[in-house]
Amino acid sequence: MSTANELKAKGNEAFAAGNHTAAIDFFSQAIELDPTNHVLYSNRSASQSSLKKYTEALADAEKTVELMPAWAKGYSRKGAALFGLQEYAMAVATYQDGLKHDPESALLKKGLSDAEAALEHEKDGGAGYDDFASKMSNAFQGDVLAKIMANPKTAPYLADPEFVRKVRDIQANPENMSKYMDDQRITVAMFTLMGMGDVFAKGADDFMNDAAEPKTQSTTQPKPAPKAEPEVMETEEDASEEDKEAATKKAQAAEAKEKGNAAYKARQFDEALVQYDNAIEFDSTDITLWNNKAAVYFEMGKYDECIETAQQAIEVGREYRADYKHIAKAMGRIGTAYSKKDNLDKAIEFYNRSLTEHRAADVLTKLRALEKLRKQREEDEYLDDEKGNAARERGNELFKAAKYAEAQAEYSEAIKRSPKDPRNYANRAACLTKLIALPDAIKDCDKCVSLDPTYVKAYTRKANALFLMREYAEALDAVEEAKLHDKDKKNSAEIDQTEYKCYSAITEQNSRQTPEQAIARAQANPKIAAVLANPIMQNILQQMQSDPRAAREHLKNPAIASNLRKLIAAGIVRMG
Fold it and tell me: Using CA atoms, how far apart are residues 459 and 349, in angstroms rounded to an integer?
């Protein structure tokens, strides 16, 4: 069986003989045996370029640079492939990167010069064809048929209705011209309309040259784009001993890494550490080796060692320009290690730093969970019923002094200190009502009764807020809830007063509109329209028309009573 070096030698011979397909095959076989040998990828890239397979050549050149970032010839291969793809700006940047590693490389300097010249030529020499294409797209604009008729050569074409149809189709959409270019009459008509009627007296090659030339000839013609220098094959002698040693070490590092990975999967963590340390000794510039070592420490529960190793991974990644995803992974692992140490602030810091490098879904999920946990802990640490009672008392004094904004702040403090005390929400609702923050007042009332459904003042305060919002039917619903829970009748006076106030407002409102106006407004109100569309409510309303006393029985049902109050407030059902 041939070795990688033997296959490489055969590839070099095939390349020298001009048999690039065979050369590619030999280099590919060699790569299978020695996948970390940068010279093999470089040579195959040269063969691909010789066959003008520049995309494949670029892939091999990029692999060459990845394996040996400091090797100038890798950048030369990459620049040549980009040049072949006519990506001149990228080729210039690649040659410049290569010169950073080998400022005296004649090959890189020549490649850079050629790429810069091609880029300049591309900027200066591309206008002729664009002008020609513009003329073509505009040729069939205006009174085309009259122009065709005026030319003795094209006038006979108009006798054919099919020709006329094609012309009109092109006029409607110039892009349709491509459908009819096999019709020589269309081609002749196009050049005639462009003022180039004599073009068919010339050969096709002359025509293309004319079309590409600008109208005004200059005495100084633009220089043709330079051609890339022929590729030079990498031989055994070209690869220095230093390069060979570096490639060998990378191969040894890759072998040790694989052993470390196998041990890690088998949860043989001590053995995995030994193998990753061996790999790092061979190639300390590979961030993935440091990341893997940090992962082992994490699984062993040695979180400080994990953090320290991941920090080293970040430093190596920054220095050798590693993929940002690898750097993000190291930062994310540090965050998880801090989370295990219950240092939420540090964990959140590193999760955020990881996300600035690369937005990984798992890191984002962990971050949100920790932020939620930290907030909950902060709230729990803040709890103090005694301080909550003191804040509420201060709020009461301020409320009595009509300092409602200051009172609201104290009630909010009381809620933070003692969030399960319903009195804090009820008192803040009273403040918010005074400040005309009525929706917020209603929310506080609802929170209060969720903690204590028997808290009567929360219902009456909600009714007052709704009254001020002119939601009289809903205010009456709150009044009914207050009545239901006021077992000892201590709040009956306030409840009755609120109820009377609501019905008085309804009566006054209905006195200013006719029944027809009330119905029209009700139909525009989705809530009222839904009640009117309810078949049960329609039956009840019909019963009430024939027997008003039937309403008393129906009012015993809370849901029906609530709907009737909505209709009363809307002026559909009138009292008295």
Answer: 45
Residues 223-270 pLDDT 10s:
454 444 444 455 544 555 566 677 788 889 899 999 999 999 999 999
Q: Which residues contact 332 (CB under 8 A, 6 or more apart)?
A: 350, 351, 354, 360, 362, 363, 366
Nearest to 532 by CA among 507, 564, 574: 564
387-420 residues labelled b (16+ CB within 10 A) or e (exposed): ebbebbebbbebbeeeebebbbbbbebbbbbbee
pTM score: 0.43
Measured between alpha carbons, how far is 479 from 461 in angstroms, rounded to an integer?
Answer: 9
Tokens of 510: 């209905």
Q: How many CA atoms lie within 13 A of 209 on its CB side?
A: 6
When mean pLDDT is compared across 14-28, 167-181, 192-206, 272-286, the lowest value belongs to 192-206
Under 8 Å between Cβ of 42 and 26: no
CA gyration radius, the chain: 43
Q: Which two tokens stand for residue 522?
A: 């009700």
The answer to whether 94 and 76 are in contact (CB under 8 A) is no
From CA 436, how far away is CA 245, in angstroms rounded?
Answer: 80
What is the CA 206 to chain-centroid distance, rounded?
52
182: helix, strand or coil: coil
Backbone angles phi, psi at 503, to 5 degrees: -65, -35
- Concatenating the DSSP letter of every residue in 141-153 gives -SSHHHHHHHSTT
Rounded Cα distance, 487 and 343, in Å: 52
